[in-house]
């Protein structure tokens, strides 16, 4: 939706941000203005408004007004505005609303990170021998479960809450490593230091970052962005875990598809061994009972 693009203001100049803020804060006034009048009201210019229209992928100013009018009056937009809880929320409200919140959060992730970015990271991942994850606190717990998903497919993966430089120096001689470094804020000093060291050691670094990420981006080969909306919500931790799991599941599934036949065959062998073990344990148990 155009409204969401205006709210995120990704890659907007300071003048474009001023126009976007005016449109969001004064939608009725905006609908009555000409292109020139909007430029004057925001202390910008008609040409800046036109450039913003192009950045929003609309053909012109009139189309922008038309689309925004319909978006603001659509049932989908009204529903999204009401995706929240309060002290009066019932269990039914939670059951009905949570799936919609999840859906909206995933849409935000896709709007913040285009498919070409995911494809580039996945292409590089397929050439790696090991995938490591770095985070602290709640983020570390999240990434531990992500590492287990990769391990279940036979892809060596580990989660760390601190950097072991000696281990890395020894291991890099015999293996290619990709490292995901996650910081919800984007400016965690430990995460920035880890990214700098890993980059210097020749590790392919992917940042999973919040809104204040200028410093850590300097040491990242690619950057995945966490939606700012998710972190500002009262259900922030729930939504952040949804964002991270969705992004990482894209890569897990991509790796599964890449080695599908091999992984499926390995799964059949594991199932056979598991069934055989149960059969053996059952026989032993019966003999013991006798």
Automatic annotation (TrEMBL):
Stretches assigned to the SIS domain: 117-261
Signal peptide: none
Pfam families named in the record: HTH_6
Gene3D superfamilies cross-referenced by the UniProt entry: Glucose-6-phosphate isomerase like protein, domain 1, Winged helix-like DNA-binding domain superfamily/Winged helix DNA-binding domain
Gene Ontology terms: biological process: carbohydrate derivative metabolic process
Record-linked SUPFAM superfamilies: Homeodomain-like (SSF46689), SIS domain (SSF53697)
Example of a GO MF term: DNA-binding transcription factor activity
Classification via PROSITE patterns: HTH_RPIR, SIS
Domain HTH rpiR-type: 1-75
PANTHER family named among the record's database cross-references: GLUCOKINASE (PTHR30514), MURR_RPIR FAMILY TRANSCRIPTIONAL REGULATOR (PTHR30514:SF10)
Record-given protein name: MurR/RpiR family transcriptional regulator
Organism (species): Candidatus Galacturonatibacter soehngenii
């Amino acid at each position: 939706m155009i409204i969401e693009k205006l709210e995120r203001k990704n890659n907007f100049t300071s003048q474009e941000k001023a126009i976007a803020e005016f449109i969001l804060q004064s939608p009725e006034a905006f609908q009555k203005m000409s292109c020139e009048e909007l430029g004057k009201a925001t202390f910008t210019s008609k040409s800046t408004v036109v450039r913003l229209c192009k950045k929003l992928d609309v053909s012109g100013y009139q189309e922008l007004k038309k689309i925004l009018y319909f978006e603001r009056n659509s049932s989908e937009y009204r529903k999204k505005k009401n995706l929240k809880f309060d002290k009066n929320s019932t269990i039914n409200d939670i059951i009905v609303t949570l799936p919609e919140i999840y859906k909206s959060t995933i849409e935000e992730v896709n709007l913040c990170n285009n498919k070409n970015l995911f494809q580039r990271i996945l292409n590089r991942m397929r050439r790696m021998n090991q995938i490591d994850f770095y985070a602290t606190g709640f983020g570390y717990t999240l990434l531990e479960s992500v590492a287990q998903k990769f391990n279940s497919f036979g892809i060596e993966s580990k989660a760390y809450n601190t950097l072991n430089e000696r281990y890395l120096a020894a291991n890099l001689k015999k293996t290619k490593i990709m490292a995901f470094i996650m910081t919800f804020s984007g400016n965690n000093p430990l995460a920035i230091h880890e990214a700098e060291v890993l980059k210097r050691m020749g590790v392919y670094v992917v940042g999973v970052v919040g809104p204040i990420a200028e410093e850590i981006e300097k040491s990242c080969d690619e950057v995945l962005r966490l939606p700012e909306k998710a972190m500002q919500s009262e259900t922030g931790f729930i939504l952040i875990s949804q964002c991270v799991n969705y992004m990482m599941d894209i890569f897990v599934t991509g790796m599964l598809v890449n080695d599908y036949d091999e992984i499926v065959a390995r799964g059949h062998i594991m199932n056979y061994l598991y069934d055989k073990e149960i059969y053996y344990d059952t026989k032993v148990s019966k003999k013991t009972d006798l």
